[in-house]
Amino acid sequence: MKQVAAVGLFSGGLDSILACRMIQAQGINVFALKFVTPFFDDHLLGRREEYCAEILEKYGITAQVVDLTRGYVELLKNPKYGFGKNFNPCVDCKIFMLTRAREMMDEFGAAFLITGEVLGQRPMSQRRDTLRVIERESGCEDILFRPLCAKRLPETKPEREGLVDRARLLDFTGRGRRRQMELAAEFGIREYPGPAGGCILTDPNLGARIDRYYRDRVPSGDGVLRENDIRLLLLGRQFLLPGGYWFILGRNQQENERIQVLAKEEDWLLTMTERPGPTGLLRRPGGTPSLHQPVGDGLCRLAAGLVVRFGGKKEGKRSRAEVLARQAGKTKQMIVEPLEDSRFIDWRF
Ligand code: SF4
Questions:
Q1: Atom of ligand 1 nearest to the CA of 89
Q2: Percentage of the chain exceeding pLDDT 90
Q3: pTM of the model
């Protein structure tokens, strides 16, 4: 008999782990798709193989990391079903992911799709009527089912065709996690992530920043959406300096390194030379920077003043320090005082 296969949407959270395991327990091969964008799990792009090996070892699930960035950046411009409490377009996001998963089914010889969704668990995207909309708009009607709450939903094709035993599916509903935890214990799964999601779009502060970028293209300045801009937008302390220059300061080593990776040839990178402190990235407005258009010394000194303001102290005090600014082989060195808070309070972005 031909081996049945299914594709699962895999967030990495407990519900998606359980959905995959339940279907595997019915003798079906499950291929779990871990979708990533700049707004969730972006870091996995740098460690795809390691991540998939971890998931296989911990949960016995074969996963694949899939980058959705390009289409997702466009989707955020005007999601058909709008946004949730913050800048999270959950309904369109699910439609987008399922559409992509459906398109990938042939690659895995999959007969159907599964998700770890639970009816009534989330107000925006897991209501009964919304689940139907998501199925319809993604072209997944009748081939998508949700093992954790399937008994509360109409039968689907894989159940009717006997590929899946409906009697072994579940009827979970609502936000509680007790039954999920019991099921995890039955599967011998002891380690799993907590319920808090890792989606930046649900963060009120960052959501507002991304919203502004999409609405007014602040701080990119020229109306063009750029993946690199979006990735920078999610980092550190942000300022709009006089003249519309964009300045980003890392808050820790990890952010400093990320800023260096995202810097383009035309950006200026600023660091203190003698004390630890943030890496600063200075970018011209408008997205059509010229390497030959100099950034004025005054502006560079303002940015350097911010680096020192947020940099390490000397003998417990903020004090002047040397800052090195680098751009495409050019360097400027300057001694600057920490910038007074009153100067930059209105520049925060
Ligand atoms: S929380 Fe984020 S990742 Fe999850 S459905 Fe909403 S927008 Fe998509």
A1: 7
A2: 84
A3: 0.90
